[in-house]
User: Fold these one by one.
Assistant:
Number 1:
Amino acid sequence: MSEQVDCVVIGAGVVGLAIARRMALAGREVVILEAEAAFGTHTSARNSEVIHAGIYYASGSLKARLCVPGRQALCRYCAEHDVNYRNIGKVVVACEDAQVPAMHKYMEQAKTNGVDDLRLLSRDELAELEPNVRAAAGFFSPSTGVVDSHGLMLAYLGDAEAHGASLALASPVVAGEVTDRGIVLRVGGAETMAIECRTVINSAGLHAPAVARSIAGVPPQSIPPTYYAIGHYYTLTGKSPFNHLVYPVTRADWLGVHVTIDLGGQVKFGPDFSWIDDVDYRFDESREPAFYEAIRRYYPGLRDGTLQPGYTGIRPRITGPGEPAQDFTFSGPSDHGIPGLVNLFGIESPGLTSSLAIADHVANLLT
Ligand SMILES: Cc1cc2nc3c(=O)[nH]c(=O)nc-3n(C[C@H](O)[C@H](O)[C@H](O)COP(=O)(O)OP(=O)(O)OC[C@H]3O[C@@H](n4cnc5c(N)ncnc54)[C@H](O)[C@@H]3O)c2cc1C
């Protein structure tokens, strides 16, 4: 069976759905092809659900440029579409004196990125905001929040469908070919088919480089290598000892074992960081002692036996161990020379926060 479709989005995670919505709202005929039997079961369901303010990202990077407007657009969207979210605020802490200069660097970086509402906390203010947190210094980010990521994806999908888009589940893209009639995608699943498309947006997350490689005619040099970095989350039993999210100062490319409080009031700690070879979400319980140690640096009251294994998420990395941290990478027609094709690579944090801004960016690459 062969079909013709104006615009195909590969992958129904939060980013693919935001793009499908954006294209459908612009009047395009959109089909979303999703390999799994449900939307949003990979990275979009396995993250911290934090609406990032835009503090950490390198000046001028796409992460910095898309996070701040993305956060503003996301909060407006959630308010208008009844998606559950909350600007709970975040306290960033230097656990030791030696980390205070790095903490001030975060504040400077935030200012450069257009985040102008951070407030340096005195020791008294810190103790008042978070009486159970021990730190040498800290600052407060009032515009950091949390969002119901499943509700957000449902809203994006609903909007896209209301504008004529359709979602095909259990429809993995297995191969493709660049032709003079457009891009032909081969779709597996129960009913295999070929689809001839004018526009293809590859938003396959952890598998985006593999999908790009499976399309004959896409220049190999335009496709980055694939690396995976797993993060574990533990949950805390009992009532929250925190009033806000709490992030310790840590290395440049990772936000550390931080505190998130979800919309149901559940406290989560994580994610940690380690390189893995394949997409494998199994929880490694041997990490527990390292979690107790990391958390007690800022929350010394953590009692033995109160951490429970939660879940894992995997970062879609395109740079490997020892290399500089990556930026969001969009490979469009002006990069690879193929009209109508955009590949999205390395869409890790803050991809959820930035999803609406990413959708605008991708649409602009196609005009
Ligand atoms: C541990 C962790 C914590 C994070 N925390 C935050 C946070 O707090 N705030 C924030 O803003 N961001 C956060 N992020 C980043 C955010 O979760 C991601 O940027 C976002 O979810 C990526 O969405 P996506 O649609 O690109 O990918 P995904 O959600 O992975 O979706 C890709 C989809 O493509 C499908 N697919 C794959 N191959 C094929 C194929 N061949 N054919 C068809 N479909 C295919 C998959 O099944 C999947 O549904 C975090 C990420 C991680 C890993």
Number 2:
Amino acid sequence: MKRIITTTGLAIAIALPGAAALAQKKMDDMKGMDMGKKPAAGAQAVHKTKAIVKKVDAKAGRVTLAHEPVASLNWPSMTMGFKVKESALLNKLTEGKRVEVEFVQEGKDYVIQSVQ
Ligand SMILES: [Cu+2]
């Protein structure tokens, strides 16, 4: 058993420099590509949904909404947590209230940008 592990470790050690060289080659190939045609950074998709406010955690700047389906994200209706972008928006989010929100995805978070 010990011998097998040692051999595998050796194989990985040998394989790695090769992989690095391959990755380097790929990067070199990309230099010829036109990288300037990407959409501008910060052009995020804004999603919209109607929801009922279930819970407000003003301290954490988070709310729990029972929202309607969100077609742009392929979401069914569900109850989930959202981050709130500005504390001023928390004034519009009171438990039990029916609202219409606009939000964007930021990493793993969904951040509410506007409340109506
Ligand atoms: Cu959801």
